[in-house]
Amino acid sequence: MQAVNPYLKQYKKNQMETATPEQILILLYDGAIQYLNQAKIALDAQDNEQFQSNMLGCEKIIIEFMNTLKIEQGGKLAETLYRLYEYLNKTLVAAAVTREIEKIDEVLGHLMRLRETWQKAIEIANAEKDVELIDKHEEAEENNYAYDYEDDDDESEDEDAYDSSEDQE
């Protein structure tokens, strides 16, 4: 059994504690994919303990996906995702029993496509947020410039008043 680097373990813990929900989702997909790849290696090496451990790790992540879906808020999309996760979990359980690499590969393929889709969706959402922030910033700048122009008019009146006071001396 391989020893875990304590610094790596702490890094991963910090990464999870400081991650956004979107980043956590991607990290979970990465974890599930890694578990399945390790399960395949263990199956090939006939290491039953590691195989079962990795299959269980992936199953737990998929169950977490199922448990965190908000069906009422997510509507049809959430229902569809739930059914897909349910199917993936059943397929994993069957693969753990039958040790069919094809079933593991099927789940692995779905997880990789889902991860890629979520990553793209997150990037699009972030780009939209960036555009909104730029628009708000530009609007604020326009308002400040308008305010600055008004201030400039006041300053010129102040300068005229100052100039007049100098003339009186």
Shape designation: elongated
Low-pLDDT residue intervals, each spanning 5 or more residues? 146-169
The biggest beta sheet is recorded as: none
The average pLDDT is 82
The CATH topology name of the domain at 6-122 reads Four Helix Bundle (Hemerythrin (Met), subunit A)
CATH superfamily heading of the domain at 6-122: Flagellar protein FliS
Q: Which CATH C-level class of the domain at 6-122 is it? A: Mainly Alpha
Please tally the β strands and state the result: 0
Strand content range: under 5%
- Structural class designation: mainly alpha
N-to-C CA distance:
94 Å
Discrete helix count = 5
CA radius of gyration: 29 Å
Order of helices and strands: HHHHH
Share of helical residues: over 70%
From the coordinates shown, what is the CATH architecture of the domain at 6-122? Answer: Up-down Bundle
Which helices and strands appear, and what pairs or packs with what?
Blueprint: H1 6-18, H2 21-44, H3 48-68, H4 71-98, H5 101-168
Helix pairs in contact: 2-3, 2-5, 3-4, 4-5
Keywords:
mainly alpha, 0% strand, Four Helix Bundle (Hemerythrin (Met), subunit A), 169 residues, disordered C terminus, elongated
